[in-house]
Design goal:
The protein has 226 residues and is mainly alpha-helical. The chain has eight helices and seven strands, in the order ααβββββααββαααα. The chain has helices at 2-15, 17-20, 84-102, 115-123, 142-155, 166-180, 192-206, 211-223; strands at residues 24-25, 34-35, 45-48, 56-59, 74-75, 132-133, 139-140. The protein has a three-stranded mixed β-sheet, with helices on one face. A two-stranded antiparallel sheet has the order 1-2. A two-stranded antiparallel sheet has the order 6-7. The longest helix has 19 residues, at 84-102. The radius of gyration is 18 Å and the shape is globular.
């Protein structure tokens, strides 16, 4: 049921930006801050029928592109990436999560109290340690949420409803999450956002700034018209 599927996979879409984010500057923030996913700043709802204004993480427009009886899962929270690993994980992990959801399988304790604020919190934290509130109390990091989906996928990787390549996706998924636990430098040659973060930091350092000083001074400079 399309009206239920997107709700089931929403925690995955929110938290997967730790490996699918394109990386860049948050142009809507006070100051200059690096974010895992610049697109998150332009999302306004969990779900929306519009893709040009009032954008949602999930796009509810009914626009099937396949044969009768099939539905199009349309998400507009993704970004273009150059890393082959990021692209592979973006499509591979989401396909497995969809397969699990269609089979009626959901990991425990992954429902978010507020999806969009959580996504913004995750996007602003390159350490990937930000804690976001869960619906039934407690909190989790994006990596923690991803691990719950991964563990469920690993338990059912050979099920009839899973694709033949599920095992390879799970292996690369786990390897990437393990590296992310060690911080952004561990994926600085693998994922788009981490690669861009290195480039931004070098560029800022060459001009005599550090990231924290840049964030602090930008609002002051704007007020002065500089």
């Amino acid at each position: 049921d399309p009206s239920m599927l997107w709700r089931r996979i929403l925690p995955h879409l929110v938290s997967r930006i730790v490996f699918t984010g394109a990386g860049g500057l948050d142009v809507l923030a006070d100051g200059v801050g690096f974010v895992l996913s610049p697109r998150v700043s332009f999302l306004e709802r969990d779900s929306s029928s519009s893709s040009t204004t009032d954008r949602g993480i999930h796009h509810s427009k009914n626009e099937p592109l396949g044969r009768s009886g099939l539905h199009r899962l349309h998400v507009i929270c993704g970004e273009s990436t150059c890393s082959r690993l990021a692209g592979y994980l973006r499509f591979g992990t989401t396909a497995l999560v969809v397969a699990l959801s269609e089979a009626g399988l959901l990991p425990s304790r992954v429902r978010l109290a507020q999806a969009l604020p959580s996504m913004r919190e995750i996007a602003r934290d390159p350490s990937c340690r930000a804690q976001v509130a869960l619906q039934r109390g407690g909190a989790s990091t994006a990596i923690g949420i991803q691990r719950r989906y991964l563990e469920l996928a690993e338990r059912h990787r050979r099920a009839d409803f899973m694709p033949s390549w599920a095992g390879d996706v799970c292996d690369r998924w786990r390897e990437t999450l393990d590296l992310l636990e060690h911080g952004p430098d561990a994926v600085a040659t693998r994922l788009d956002w981490a690669i861009k973060r290195v480039l931004v930091r070098r560029h800022v350092a060459r001009r005599g700034f550090d990231e924290e000083r840049l964030r602090r001074w930008t609002p002051i400079l704007e007020k002065l018209g500089l």
